[in-house]
Amino acid sequence: MSQSNKHRRPGKPKTPAAPDDDWQPWSDAWTKHVPTLTGRTDLHVFVAPGAGGGSPECFYPALRRIEVDADYIADTPQIADPRKAGHKRIVPTGYGLLVHGAAHAAHSRWTTPPGTRPILAEVADLLEESRAEGRQRGRRRTDRRWLRHTVNTILIDARTAPVDDLWHAGVLAALLLARVDARILTSKDVRGIRAAVTAVLGRPRLRRLREVWKQAHLVDDTDASSMIELARRWCEILGIDPNRHRKIPTADAGEFPGRLEQALADFLAAAVGLTPTDYRATILNRRHQAPGDWPSTPPTAEQHAAARQLADRIRRARIRNPETVRRGAVLPPGRLRTRHAIAADAQIAAGQTPTAQPWQHRTQQPPPKPTLHLAVLADLSGSMRTYAAELSSAAWIFAHAAHRGQAVTTTIGFGERTTLLVPPNSRPSQVLHMQPEGGTYTFCDAVKLADQMLELRHGRTLRLLAVVSDGDLADKPAAQKLITTLHRAGCAVLWLHPAELDSHTFTSTTTITVADPVDAVVRIADAAVTAIENA
């Protein structure tokens, strides 16, 4: 998939959105308004849920049409009257998308020459984003306000910075840092982005890239050859030979996100007025929400009892092997500490409440234990169908036991998609039943999601990743690379293989063959308790 959301496409949409009568007044009103934004009278605007060809907004030059996905405007078309000028303040992001499409319609008048390498076309499109917006702002200065509202929408689902490499650092630079020189964003807006990009690219390389995008901002609206030549220079600066690397670079599935992703998340969180933690939780829950047709049931008495028993085991594990510690006391028994006794007498003589503790005695206290972070990954492929029901029950039990036992847990299903069954620090009221599906294509995404949720690569906590799967994954080398990274970071990886299935064994894991789903759940609980006891 292209790294940037496409906002200008030749030809027709591959999957056209169906017209929506409720949103037709918006299409009509914005079609009447778009000549004011573009200076063109041959355009029309189409607003409907799913419009834009997979992007929030898209301009189709051949059709002379701007499409805006109504889902990015509001939940209901009745939110505002698009015929009134004040509606733009009610839906600033939606109106900003219209302005963005208008910028392409007015200034992106060049087309990619036939035979251009895909990577060159991609870079030219990246440079065109800030160039078109800069031209629009130069012609209509007040449009900057609305264009700023679209930046987070354009980037939020683009997976712009999945890993820290030169290509993706360049993508962030083209989409955000270049908008500073186009006078859409400010240097303050992108301070964190600039630091992360500089860390990956280095100052000399970033300086050369900036020269390229500043030249792109001066290119004429119809000069395709100059845009392609600048794209070639961009690739050369990043060490990419377009003649050899014809395809657009993709992220290594075996690498975790790094500084670029962190900086981008912070930027987007600030754009929507949330803390980075809250923003990440919101986005991850939205992206990986369980399908609406998955059934849920109230927890049974047996599940409540199992949660209490596991919580008790976790609490006992935390206080096992008490240690002798020395504590100060105001009154005997114990050993008198002369210095503290003199200090207490002095405080009393001065008319103060004594805070010194003259006596010292020994007591038995449980040792401090780190908080357990437990991530359970459940294989939802067809071969693991018999395990889905028991693991769904275990997800509810683990969540409630963790809350009572000062632990943090999450359960994630992987199959055709990655599904967040139980988020961290939550106590679901219902038992959500996972539904097996297809193959195991999203294991790597599930591991990365667990790492984002529980910080599995950071040593401040006690960490355990438990996987219930036969190991027949779509990308075994990438999966092994992720597992190895976690192992080296100090995160234990417990892999549970069903006895009745052929399995693949990964290195850097504790691999156990389980007889049935109940055995798998018991093994995970035992491993969690043992990890706390030995911490």
Automatic annotation (TrEMBL):
It comes from the Bacteria. Residues 1-12 have a biased composition (Basic residues). Residues 1-27 are annotated as: Disordered. InterPro entries: Uncharacterised_CoxE, vWFA_dom_sf. This is VWA domain-containing protein. It comes from Actinoplanes aureus.
